[in-house]
Write a structure and sequence with these properties.
Mean pLDDT of chain A: 92
Order of helices and strands of chain B: EEEEEEEEEEE
Low-confidence stretches of chain B: none
Mean pLDDT of chain B: 91
Largest sheet of chain B: 7 strands, mixed
Shape of chain A: globular
Distance between the termini of chain A: 38 Å
Number of strands of chain B: 11
Largest interface: A-B, 25 and 30 residues
Strand content of chain A: over 45%
Oligomer: heterodimer
Number of helices of chain B: 0
Shape of chain B: globular
Number of helices of chain A: 0
Helix content of chain A: under 10%
Radius of gyration of chain B: 13 Å
Structural class of chain A: mainly beta
Structural class of chain B: mainly beta
Helix content of chain B: under 10%
Radius of gyration of chain A: 13 Å
Number of strands of chain A: 11
């Protein structure tokens, strides 16, 4: 049973527009959420995180929104750039425990 | 330069052979992890270790073994008991208190 779900396997967005990647979770004990970015044949790199005590965290072009009642979070990238083309993994952990549960990822294509 | 190294990048083995994947970090992190990624799947935890000479099974530990004799090193052995060993293997590390994990570049293992 998947505790972290990324229901869109892929997404295409025009360069310069906003990219919105979505993630749903089922475990109400999760209190820390992360987004990782991964290029082919490379390890994922940490992008941005959010604690359950917040509903928004912003870092440059990247903003993560958390809706605890809906058990939903989203990553916004504005403006989208060609280098943003990658697979994005949503991840969650419980009580800052060391085990992180990852979603299956969403492949983002930025179109010229 | 601090970071995590995995070697080799590509590894080919015959079915029935054990193979050991290397993971070294110089970030002074206490915790280290092994994940497996298959096409269309998220990252699945194989084993993790929070301290030298101690490690715990993750979600898919069957057919794998690890050791943690040194803080910097966390090798993973894929044994002949692993039914589907062909995959992309990622090693990661973190501080004990931190949830963000730093990943190595990965090793693609092909077993024929």
């Amino acid at each position: 049973d998947q505790q972290v779900k990324q229901n869109s396997p892929s997404l295409s967005v025009q360069e310069g527009r906003i990219s919105i990647l979505n993630c749903d979770y089922t475990n109400s004990m999760f209190d820390y959420f992360l987004w990782y970015k991964k290029y082919p044949a490379e390890g994922p790199t940490f992008l941005i995180s959010i604690s359950s005590i917040k509903d928004k965290n912003e870092d440059g072009r990247f903003t993560v929104f958390l809706n605890k009642s809906a058990k939903h979070l989203s990553l916004h990238i504005v403006p989208s750039q060609p280098g943003d083309s990658a697979v994005y993994f949503c991840a969650a952990s419980e009580n800052r425990d060391d085990k992180i549960i990852f979603g299956k990822g969403t492949r983002l294509h930025i179109l010229p | 330069d601090g970071g995590i190294t995995q070697s080799p990048k590509y590894l080919f083995r015959k079915e029935g052979q054990n193979v050991t994947l290397s993971c070294e970090q110089n970030l002074n992190h206490d915790a280290m992890y092994w994940y497996r990624q298959d096409p269309g799947q998220g990252l699945r935890l194989i084993y993790y270790s929070q301290i030298v000479n101690d490690f715990q099974k993750g979600d898919i530990a069957e057919g794998y073994s690890v050791s943690r004799e040194k803080k910097e090193s966390f090798p993973l052995t894929v044994t002949s008991a692993q039914k589907n060993p062909t995959a992309f293997y990622l090693c990661a590390s973190s501080t004990l208190a931190g949830v963000e994990q730093y990943f190595g570049p990965g090793t693609r293992l092909t077993v024929t």
